[in-house]
C-alpha cells in the first residue's frame, strides 16, 4: 500500500503542470497573457485539454508559438486570430457562435429534445396499451373510436 501511495505521489508533479520551466517568459506580464491565451486554446492532439494543460509535443510547439507572437508585439486578439486562421475555429476551446459552428452549438439541444420526445411517445403508447389490455372487444372498439375523434 505504501508503495502505491509513493508511486502516486511521485507522478503528481508531472500531472500538475505541462508547462516546462524553460518555456516561461522573463516578463511576468507577457507570461500572464501567454497563460491566458494558452488556457483558451485546444490541444489538437488531446482535443479535450488546453495547450496549457497538455504535455503533447504539438501543444508545446503551440505554447512556444504563442509566446513568440507575444514577444513580437502581437496583441492577444491577433495571436488568437493567427491561430484560428491557421487551424480553424476548432483550436478554440469555446468556439464562436456563427453559421459555421451553428450545428456544434445546437446539436446537444436537438439530441435532448429528440430524446425527450421519444420518451414521451413511448410513455403515451404504453399508457394506451395498458388501458386497452383489460377491455372487452366492444370496449376496445369504443376506445379506438374515441381516440380517433380526439386526433
What descriptive keywords fit this protein?
single chain; 151 residues; mainly alpha; Helicase, Ruva Protein, domain 3; 2 domains; 6 helices
Summary of the model, kept short:
With 151 residues, this protein is mainly alpha-helical. Helices cover 67% and strands 0% of the residues.
CATH H-level homologous superfamily name of the largest domain: Cytochrome C biogenesis protein
Average of the residue pLDDT scores: 81
Which stretches are poorly predicted, pLDDT < 50 over at least 5 residues? 12-16
Major sheet size, sense and barrel closure: none
Write the layout of secondary structure elements.
Elements lengths: L1 H15 L11 H13 L16 H15 L4 H12 L14 H32 L3 H14 L1
Helix pairs in contact: 2-3
Describe the structure in your own words.
- The structure is a single chain.
- The protein is mainly alpha-helical and 151 residues long.
- The protein folds into 2 domains: 2-96, Cytochrome C biogenesis protein (Helicase, Ruva Protein, domain 3); 102-150.
- The protein contains 6 helices and no strands.
- Helix 2 packs across helix 3.
- The longest helix is centred in the C-terminal third of the chain and has 32 residues, at 102-133.
- The N and C termini lie far apart (67 Å).
- Residues 12-16 have low confidence and may be disordered.
Amino acid at each position: 500500500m505504501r508503495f502505491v501511495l509513493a508511486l502516486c505521489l511521485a507522478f503528481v508533479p508531472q500531472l500538475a503542470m505541462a508547462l516546462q520551466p524553460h518555456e516561461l517568459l522573463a516578463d511576468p506580464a507577457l507570461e500572464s497573457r501567454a497563460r491566458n491565451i494558452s488556457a483558451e486554446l485546444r490541444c489538437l492532439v488531446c482535443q479535450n485539454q488546453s495547450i496549457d494543460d497538455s504535455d503533447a509535443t504539438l501543444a508545446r510547439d503551440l505554447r512556444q508559438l504563442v509566446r513568440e507572437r507575444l514577444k513580437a508585439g502581437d496583441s492577444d486578439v491577433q495571436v488568437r486570430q493567427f491561430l484560428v486562421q491557421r487551424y480553424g475555429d476548432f483550436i478554440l476551446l469555446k468556439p464562436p457562435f456563427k453559421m459555421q459552428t451553428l450545428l456544434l452549438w445546437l446539436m446537444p439541444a436537438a439530441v435532448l429534445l429528440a430524446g425527450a420526445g421519444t420518451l414521451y411517445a413511448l410513455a403515451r403508447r404504453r399508457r394506451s396499451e395498458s388501458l386497452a389490455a383489460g377491455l372487452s372487444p366492444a370496449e376496445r372498439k369504443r376506445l379506438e373510436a374515441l381516440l380517433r375523434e380526439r386526433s
